[in-house]
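User: Please predict the structure of the protein below. I'd like the answer in structure-token form so I can feed it into my own downstream comparison script.

Assistant: Understood. Taking the following sequence of 214 residues as input:
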Amino acid sequence: MTDPAARPARWPIIPTVIVAVAIATMIALGVWQLQRKGEKEAMIALHQRNIAMSSEVIFPKLAPVDLALYFRRSSVTCLEPITASPRAGRDGTGASTYQMVVDCRTGAEGPGVLVSIGTDEDPARKLGWKGGTVQGTIIPGPEQPSLIARLTGTAVPARAMLLADPPVAGWGANATPAPEDQPNNHLAYAVQWFIFAAAAGVIYVLALRKRLRG
């Protein structure tokens, strides 16, 4: 009669399939991040060309926004400021300060527009602005969808924002918009996913060897 202890360990099929799927998913995410890196580099190059243009375009009130419109000059007429909120930013000298972001009504119906009217060191400063025509540069709005939302298809299209230049009277200058300041950390994310995939594979192989020898 065969000793049960002497029987060779069976290959764990289900755990192996699970680990293989996990590794394949991590590799796919790494490849996707590399593709996003290329897309982001092309987008930044486009925006660098845009910011050199002096002609104005119509401000995009509806999302999603055509990427070709970002970093173009534009103007909007704010009939009435609806909400105003200070957000961390930089002034015209590059120093850290607060941007006053105003959500403006532009008509009786329909969407409004976001405008960064200027900067101030005091985040509690009262708005003191009743609206008017503002000129500036179109940039991505402050509320961008998260990576998880984009991956799951639940991302809400982001609104554009007009970075006032010149600022509204009495407010400090906004920092000069720079397309190259847009985050492009997709290569780092890709490397992380590949490292995770390699680590998972090594750990599982070591555990499997121990099991089969045991």
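That's the full token string. The chain has a mean pLDDT of 88.
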